C-alpha cells in the first residue's frame, strides 16, 4: 500500500518502521521544519521494551538513560517530608525525548520519505483511496492515511470532527521550562503539591539545567490557545502567595526560551478509524502526561496496528477488519492507562 502518516514524533516514525518492513511505501509529513528537538524526558514501561528490541534500538535508547534517583516531597518551605522512588516519574527507563526522536528518525530516514515543513489541509476518501491536500505541496492519493499528530491532531479534526468532541480536559494546566540548576539537583526531583497547585523540579541529563513544572487547577483547555503573556500572568496569579523558590522561578519563567504551556487532557473516541483513515498514539487515545504512559502507548499502538494490517488485505474490507482487531486488543490497555492518568492529576492537586 501507499501510506501517508501525519506526525514525526514517536508514533509516526515507529509505525513507519514496521510498515516499511512489511513492504509498504510510506511517507511521513510533519509540520515542523526538521525533526523536533524539543520536549523533556519520556519513559518506557512494559511491552514498550519489546517494541524497542524488535526495532533493534533498545540498547541505544538505554544509552541515553537519565538515571533519575527519586523525588523528594517537600512542604511549602522546601522542607523534605517524604520521597517517591525513581519509577514514579521515570518508569523503568527514562531518556530525553529529543534523543528518542533523533534515533527513530535515523533508523527510518533511509527507507521512509519524510516531508518536513508541511501539513495536511483536506482529506477526501472513498472505497478505493484517500485524496490528500497539503498546505505546501500538490495533492496526492493514498491507500491509507494515519494520524500520528498528537492531541490536537489535524487528521482527527478533518476526519472525525472538532477537537471539542474528543479532547477531555482533566482540570490542570501549567508551564514547563528549563533554567539554571540553582538547587544543585543531581538526577533527582523535588515535588510540592497542594490543593489545586503543584511544583515539580528536576535535573537529569544536563546537570547544569533544571526543568521546572508549575501546574494549577483550571476549567478550560482553551488556555493553550492564549498568547504567552496572558499564560504567564495566569501562572503568576496562581502562585502569587507562594514563598520558597517560587518567586525566583516566576521571574525565570519570563526569561525562558523554551517555555511550553499545556493543559492535562485525554483523547476519548468511540472509534479510532473511519474508512481508510486511522489514528495512533496521542491523536487517538492520549492518556495524559500524568499517566507516564504516552511514549510506551505510542510505541505499542504503532506496533500492534502494523501487525494487524499485516494480517489483512489492503482493500476497504481488510482495513476495516484490521482496525477492529487492533481496537479490541488495545482498548483495555488504553483504558487502564487513562484511569492512571486521571488519578495522577488528582494526586498532583487537580
UniProtKB/TrEMBL annotation:
Span of domain FAD-binding: 2-312
Record SUPFAM superfamilies: FAD/NAD(P)-binding domain
Gene Ontology MF annotations: FAD binding
Domain of life according to the entry: Bacteria
Stated name of the protein: 2-polyprenyl-6-methoxyphenol hydroxylase-like FAD-dependent oxidoreductase
Species of provenance: Streptosporangium saharense
Amino acid at each position: 500500500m501507499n501510506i501517508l502518516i501525519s506526525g514525526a514524533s514517536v508514533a509516526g516514525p515507529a509505525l513507519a518502521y514496521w510498515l516499511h518492513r512489511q513492504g509498504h511505501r510510506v511517507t511521513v509529513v510533519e509540520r515542523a521544519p526538521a525533526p523536533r528537538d524539543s520536549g523533556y524526558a519520556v519513559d518506557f514501561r512494559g511491552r514498550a521494551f519489546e517494541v524497542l528490541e524488535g526495532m533493534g534500538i533498545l540498547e541505544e535508547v538505554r544509552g541515553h538513560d537519565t538515571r533519575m534517583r527519586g523525588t523528594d516531597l517537600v512542604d511549602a518551605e522546601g522542607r523534605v517530608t517524604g520521597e517517591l522512588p525513581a519509577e514514579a516519574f521515570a518508569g523503568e527507563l527514562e531518556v530525553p525525548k529529543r534523543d528518542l526522536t533523533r534515533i527513530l528518525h535515523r533508523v527510518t530516514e533511509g527507507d521512509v520519505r519524510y516531508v518536513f515543513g508541511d501539513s495536511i489541509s483536506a482529506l477526501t476518501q472513498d472505497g478505493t483511496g484517500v485524496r490528500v491536500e497539503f498546505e505546501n505541496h500538490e495533492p496526492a492519493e493514498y491507500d491509507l492515511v494515519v494520524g500520528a499528530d498528537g492531541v490536537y491532531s489535524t487528521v482527527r479534526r478533518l476526519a472525525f470532527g472538532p477537537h471539542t468532541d474528543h479532547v477531555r480536559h482533566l482540570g490542570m494546566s501549567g508551564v514547563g521550562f528549563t533554567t539554571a540548576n540553582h538547587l544543585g539537583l543531581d538526577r533527582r526531583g523535588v515535588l510540592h503539591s497542594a490543593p489545586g497547585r503543584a511544583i515539580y523540579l528536576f535535573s537529569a541529563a544536563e546537570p547544569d539545567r533544571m526543568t521546572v513544572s508549575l501546574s494549577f487547577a483550571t476549567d478550560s483547555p482553551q488556555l493553550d490557545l492564549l498568547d504567552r503573556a496572558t499564560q504567564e500572568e495566569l501562572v503568576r496569579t496562581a502562585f502569587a502567595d507562594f514563598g520558597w523558590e517560587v518567586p525566583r522561578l516566576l521571574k525565570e519563567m519570563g526569561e525562558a526560551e523554551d517555555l511550553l504551556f499545556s493543559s492535562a487532557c485525554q483523547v476519548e473516541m468511540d472509534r479510532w478509524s473511519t474508512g481508510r483513515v486511522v489514528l495512533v498514539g496521542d491523536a487517538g487515545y492520549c492518556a495524559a502526561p500524568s499517566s507516564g504512559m504516552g511514549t510506551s502507548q505510542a510505541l505499542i499502538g504503532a506496533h500492534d496496528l502494523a501487525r494487524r494490517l499485516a494480517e489483512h488485505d489492503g482493500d476497504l474490507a481488510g482495513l476495516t477488519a484490521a482496525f477492529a482487531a487492533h481496537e479490541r486488543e488495545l482498548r483495555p490497555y488504553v483504558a487502564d492507562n487513562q484511569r492512571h492518568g486521571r488519578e495522577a492529576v488528582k494526586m498532583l492537586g487537580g
